[in-house]
Amino acid sequence: MALESPEGCRRIPMGHSARFAPLHSRAAATVATRAREPCCHAAPAVSPDAASRALRRPIAYPPPRVSLIEDIQAYIGFDADDAEALAAFLPVARPHFPRIAAHFYDLILEHPSAHAAITGGTAQVERLKKTLVGWMESGLAGPHDEAYFEKRSRIGRVHVEIGLPQRFMFTAMNVIRLDFRDLVRTHLADAETAQRTSDALDKLFDMELAIMLGAYQADSEERLRQRERLAVVGQIAASIGHELRNPLGVIRSSSFLLGRYVDDEKAKRHVAKIDHQVERCSRIIEGLLELTRERPVTRSHVEIGPLVEEVTADLRESGVLSADVDVTFSAVDDGARAVDADPAMLRQVVSNLVENAVAAGAAQHVAVTARRTDEGTEISVLDDGRGFPAEVLPRAFEPLVSSRPHGTGLGLALVHAIARRHGGRAEAANRPEGGARVTVVLPRRAGP
Predict the structure, then answer these.
(1) 228-292, what's its fold?
(2) What is the pTM assigned to this prediction?
């Protein structure tokens, strides 16, 4: 018999905790007394013994929440024995990984529809082969935990970003499955070991597919919802823009004329406020229209360092960037000093990110960095300000979401849209040492 302790969630045996006996007795007596009292509702009477037994009954807790990776593993029956079999097979399979990767991409390059998703030519294929070798290594080595689940989920999201049809995820996995079956057949003489290893591999590849397809579906649905939201925003923006342009033009012209006849300094400041607010309204309308406008991407060679200098100078001249805020640029390697991108769009990205960093407040230093990755060029803007509020961070790139009272919530949304138009992505995070980091990844240009 056990009683729930008020000090925690442990079930404390009645015989081992006498100090809860008075509490139990009083509670039982109270319930028994109330059970004997008349009630306006026709509820059945509860005997003192039944009330006492109810109080002594252990509390039933709901089962612990099962993670997605645990749910998948339970469904397909993947367990510790399977993980052990995969790890034991790894030394046998490892020397053959490069050959399997080469076979995998040879088949992709022979199929026009699958080949179309690879836009980086021979250099990209060689990088992808190395990535596939690492994928096979980690799949057999494990551990098959939450970190493994998240890494595999990213693969599914990348397939959405590059526009790979979902059917190729099945066919590609089957190519690898058959190559591994050949390895088992030719390198494992013991029939029982071969069967155990083959079963574990089948479960592994099924698990990989389940994770990637789940992420693929979730990301596709989110993109669809995003497009629907932007379509609505675009319709509203077009309507509002049409209706407000003429009134704003009248206000701007009247303010200009009024400013010519005003000598009082206080009155001049009010006229300047009118001009500033009219300009702000115009920027909001233009931002909404730009966010929903599917302007084609015209790529060319863009030097990132000079672009950052130009943007910084423009922001200082407009008063957005004060003289005491330092903006720097650094490239991790020489290959990251330039990128193939739409110059006007990239300028908009850098301008929005730097402006967002200083507008959030408290930032004294903004660092723009660039580095090359397997995906392409990664441009990050870091600041030493307050960072993103916890409730805003997950929605940082959504239109009209802002942590600032007078923010429009369009700057980062436009950055995200431009990154997607380039086939890339944007990410936001708070830095452990304080401040925020926003990163834009632009894939390499198509071609060898």
Answers:
(1) Helix Hairpins (1.10.287)
(2) 0.47
